[in-house]
């Protein structure tokens, strides 16, 4: 069987990774490039008699690198030799915006690569009325051109076959990127250095200053201008845009949607609609999920033979799974709106409107979308920061996103606010509870802005931030594309956050149901001590006693000295530790630890209200403690999934730790001050 | 005149794109000497500038726009 080595390259966001997954399926592995933290993805597939190895390189925009990723790709392309020599390059282009891609393509072509051009997203391009003459492109560049849709799998087989063909007419590069007088200088340099490729020599001159008498600035801009003119000419011949699909409504809509006043008001209304929908529409499916899980729980508990394995399933695994599934409705609704904004073209207007404001705190207009997602969950938010090109702006967005009030904090806030203010208190028509909740949201927004401002002064900018964004025409959203986006993102959330929530729930379950001798002797102790009590009363007392003496309980007690100044006791300590799986676990843990018996009429809130702190002898959940806990949950990064996704996206242990530490310290200090002042 | 100082709804020809880290980026978007630029809108508080160049519309920050000289 013959072997073929292929590299996938192209600008960022052209669907390279989707194509890579299409080609190689599960036959892929991720490694690292030496010395840098960029994923190196290598996959394999067979086609006819060939074993084809594919390397997926990071997306890059220019042969003049402006970021680490780009530097890596450019080095890879400039030094293609030895045993890892690439036989073919698949250049992936975005069919809806091919002009940017062709510029880079012509440069790669000049480096002497044997290229197959894969024009991706051809289905979307067609819908936008963009017609691409592939035959002309093939002739002009002397390469094979294939139209594909990596999402749908269209044209992928044609692409595989094209890889095995000889390029139609691999023309030598003809120095069309320099004016005649400079061309001579370059030709002389090429022959004097015995180079085989004049564009490589050009890069040696402009990037490594190999010919000191050359004015590099001038050569570079000459290349850009001449190449652009050439690409322009090719584009004019290769692309026809069906104007009947384009309308002037875009300009008319932009007058309102990008207006100084109306633009912002409309954006505010859009935001409110999204929030309202995320929380109110999701209430129904979330209710169904709860009912469904309690049905599964009860069925399994009654059908499976009683024992520790059944308990593990019903009390450890099922609640863990529920903790993941319960978020799916909110995430899906959120991504429905994002897909709608993105597909329609409105998203880019938001970026335009918000850029200046976000820049003041070191972020970009493009940070707005991830930050909005953060109100549902920080995990999809951090994943969505990939669209921010500038490293520093992206890093700051990642660092502050978890400060915004995510929906996992809501159940915690609801209970604590319930303890803090009576339900019947009104200010005008609005309940005081609602106002406090709104205050918590505002607190998140303000703190994240302040934190961003601090990071803006701390983090050095290696690559200059620039902001050029295409503002596309408005389009009616394609329902299929939207469904696909929702599906992809929800899947990514379930996978990234889900496995951690489930794993943490299981670990906590094991820690909470195992313990030392005291734990193991609980049964004898209780039947001996309380002969007069009914079985259910004993069970309730016993489960609280068991939790206290479990490993989890011991952990709670061991951190007690640290949290007494915040007004908590070891019981709250257990809840804090359990919250690391996900914040809303707080509620469940509280109900176990304060031995809330389902047969009793007291609700969890009434029970907590009566609780006495063993250290102070006062009510545990007094005013000061509630405020202190609220603040702690507002600021602390008690979320394993967020930590994991931050690491995955930044590939930096340093920034992952900084994020965890600054939030924990902030939470601790603020809660400490609040408790000490109020108690 | 710099693009960053240009009034909205005016059409001008690009004279020169000054040397910068991002000049090749600008050129990739078709911002090259000789091209016509229309300023469509500006975001408030010195925000980005919304321009039309050829058949495409792009938004660009004021800072970057100050590297583009118009006739």
What does this structure look like?
The complex is a heterodimer of chains A (679) and B (71). With 679 residues, chain A is of the alpha/beta class. Among the domains of chain A are: 2-164, 3-Layer(aba) Sandwich (Rossmann fold); 180-241, no CATH class. Helix content of chain A is 61%, strand content 9%. Chain A is built from 32 helices and twelve strands. In chain A, the strands form three sheets. A seven-stranded mixed sheet of chain A has the order 2-3-4-1-5-6-8, sandwiched between helices. In chain A, a hairpin with a 2-residue loop joins strand 3 (39-47) and strand 4 (50-56). The termini of chain A are far apart. With 71 residues, chain B is mainly beta. Chain B has one domain (3-70): SH3 type barrels (Roll). Chain B is 14% helix and 38% strand. Chain B has helices at 23-28, 62-65; strands at residues 11-17, 36-42, 49-53, 56-60, 68-70. In chain B, a hairpin with a 2-residue loop joins strand 3 and strand 4. The longest helix of chain B is centred in the middle third of the chain and has 6 residues, at 23-28. Chain B starts with 10 loop residues before the first strand and ends with a strand. The model of chain B has no long low-confidence stretch (mean pLDDT 84). The interface between A and B is medium-sized, with 38 and 32 residues. Strand 12 of chain A pairs antiparallel with strand 4 of chain B, so a sheet runs across the interface.
- Strand arrangement across the biggest beta sheet of chain A: 2-3-4-1-5-6-8
Tally of alpha and pi helices of chain A: 32
Could you tell me how far the N terminus lies from the C terminus of chain A, measured between alpha carbons in angstroms? 78 Å
CATH superfamily of the domain at 2-164 in chain A: P-loop containing nucleotide triphosphate hydrolases
Spell out the helices and strands of chain B N to C. EHEEEHE
Summarize the structure.
The complex is a heterodimer of chains A (679) and B (71). Chain A is 61% helix and 9% strand.
């Amino acid at each position: 069987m013959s072997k073929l080595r292929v590299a996938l390259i192209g600008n960022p966001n052209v669907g390279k990774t989707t194509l890579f997954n299409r080609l190689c399926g599960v036959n892929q592995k991720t490694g690292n490039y030496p010395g840098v933290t960029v994923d190196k993805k290598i996959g394999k597939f067979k086609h006819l008699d060939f074993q084809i190895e594919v390397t997926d390189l990071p997306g890059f925009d220019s042969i003049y690198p402006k970021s680490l990723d780009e530097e890596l790709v450019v080095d890879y392309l400039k030094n293609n030799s030895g045993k890892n020599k690439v036989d073919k390059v698949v250049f992936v282009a975005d069919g809806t915006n091919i002009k940017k891609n062709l510029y880079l393509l012509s440069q790669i072509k000049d480096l002497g690569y044997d290229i197959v051009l894969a024009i991706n997203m051809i289905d979307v391009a067609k819908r936008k009325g963009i017609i691409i003459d592939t035959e002309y492109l093939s002739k002009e560049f002397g390469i094979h051109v294939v139209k594909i849709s990596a999402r749908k799998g269209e044209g992928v087989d044609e692409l595989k076959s094209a890889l095995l063909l000889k390029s139609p007419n691999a023309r030598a590069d003809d120095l069309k990127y320099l004016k005649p007088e400079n061309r001579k200088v370059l030709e002389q340099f090429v022959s004097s250095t015995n180079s085989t490729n004049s564009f490589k020599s050009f890069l040696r001159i402009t990037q490594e200053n190999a010919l000191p008498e050359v004015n590099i600035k001038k050569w570079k801009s000459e290349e850009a201008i001449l190449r652009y003119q050439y690409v322009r000419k090719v584009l004019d011949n290769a692309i026809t845009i069906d104007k009947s699909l384009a309308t002037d409504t875009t300009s008319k809509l932009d007058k309102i949607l990008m207006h100084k006043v109306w633009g912002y008001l409309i954006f505010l209304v859009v935001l409110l609609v999204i929030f309202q929908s995320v929380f109110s529409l999701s209430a129904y499916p979330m209710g169904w999920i709860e009912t469904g899980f309690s049905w599964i729980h009860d069925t399994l508990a009654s059908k499976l033979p009683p024992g520790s394995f059944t308990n593990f399933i019903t009390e450890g695994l099922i609640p863990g799974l529920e903790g993941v599934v319960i978020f799916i409705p909110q995430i899906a609704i959120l991504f429905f709106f994002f897909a709608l904004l993105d597909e329609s073209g409105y998203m880019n207007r938001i970026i335009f409107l918000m850029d200046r404001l976000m820049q003041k705190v070191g972020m970009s207009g493009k940070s707005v979308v991830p930050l909005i997602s953060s109100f549902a969950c920080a995990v999809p938010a951090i994943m969505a920061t990939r669209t921010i090109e500038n490293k520093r702006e992206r890093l700051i967005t990642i660092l502050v996103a978890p400060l915004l009030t995510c929906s996992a904090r809501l159940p915690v806030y609801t209970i604590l606010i319930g303890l803090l203010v009576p339900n019947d208190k009104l200010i005008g028509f609005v309940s005081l509870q609602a106002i406090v909740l709104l205050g918590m949201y505002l607190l998140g927004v303000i703190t994240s802005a302040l934190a961003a401002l601090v990071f803006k002064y701390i983090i050095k900018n290696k690559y200059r931030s620039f902001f050029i964004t295409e503002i596309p025409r408005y389009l009616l959203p394609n329902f299929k594309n939207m469904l696909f986006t929702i599906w992809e993102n929800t899947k990514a959330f379930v996978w990234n956050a889900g496995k951690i929530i489930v794993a943490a729930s299981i670990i906590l379950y094991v820690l909470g149901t195992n313990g030392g001798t005291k734990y193991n002797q609980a049964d004898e102790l209780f039947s001996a001590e309380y002969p007069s009590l009914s079985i259910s009363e004993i069970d309730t007392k016993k489960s609280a006693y068991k939790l206290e003496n479990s490993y989890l309980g011991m952990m709670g007690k061991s951190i007690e000295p640290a949290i007494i100044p915040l007004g908590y006791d070891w019981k709250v300590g257990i809840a804090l530790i359990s919250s690391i799986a996900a914040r809303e676990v707080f509620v469940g843990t509280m109900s176990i630890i304060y031995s809330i018996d389902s047969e009793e009429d007291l609700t969890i809130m009434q029970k907590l209200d009566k609780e006495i702190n063993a250290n102070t002898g006062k009510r545990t959940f007094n005013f000061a403690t509630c405020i202190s806990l609220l603040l702690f949950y507002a600021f602390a990064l008690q979320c394993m999934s967020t930590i994991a996704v931050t690491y995955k996206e930044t590939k930096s242990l340093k920034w992952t730790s900084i994020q965890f530490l600054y939030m924990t310290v902030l939470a601790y200090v603020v809660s400490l001050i609040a408790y000490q002042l109020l108690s | 005149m710099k693009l960053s100082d240009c009034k909205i709804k005016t059409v001008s020809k690009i004279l020169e794109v000054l040397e910068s880290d991002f000049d090749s980026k600008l050129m990739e978007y078709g911002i090259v000497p000789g091209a016509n630029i229309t300023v469509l809108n500006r975001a408030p508080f010195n925000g980005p500038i919304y321009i039309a160049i050829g058949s495409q519309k792009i938004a660009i920050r004021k800072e970057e726009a100050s590297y583009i000289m118009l006739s």
